[in-house]
Automatic annotation (TrEMBL):
Keywords: Oxidoreductase. It comes from Virgibacillus subterraneus. It comes from the Bacteria. The lineage of its organism: Bacteria, Bacillati, Bacillota, Bacilli, Bacillales. Residues 167-183 have a biased composition (Basic and acidic residues). This is Nitroreductase. Belongs to the nitroreductase family.
Amino acid sequence: MYELKEFRKASHDIDPIFIKRWSPRSFLNKEVPEDVLNTVFEAARWAPSAANVQPWRFVVARTEADHQRFHSFIFDGNVAWCEKAPVLIAVVSKTDAEFMGGENPSHAFDTGAAWGYLALEAARNGLASHAMGGFDKSKAKEVLNIPENYMVHAIVAIGYQGEKEDLQQQLQEREKPSDRNEVDTFISEGTFAEKL
């Protein structure tokens, strides 16, 4: 495993969990206990939500049959590394809300917050999580019986981190925590300013 301080160092004082969370691709073929998985979803439950709509939904695959169902719409390049992950999750949001007069304009924003909470709680419990966008969204909706007024945003692999040597050669060099842009590159005060 990696010493995170080799790759990541906060410029300001933050909780270490934010540095600890990263997106490995190597997973152990080891089951995640039910109570641990429940804490991950419990954390997502408490994410902020506009008008308290809580539009997020999670479709979970833990059995071999459900994994095969997910593999049918995940692109081959991602199946190559996520097939050992014991848990796959489709991150879905409900795009409408009746009392809002139809469309919920913040469904994706709120669901992103729920995914963030989920990822941090996974890290707190010693789990790795890796969200991927490399899948066929239309096929995912069909295979998982997701209604029209829901959107699939990502597929997340969750489990215990494996060794990078267990990955295909071309993925091994990418199997390390990534750094982040400094704060002053993405904030501007008063008006928008693009910083390169």
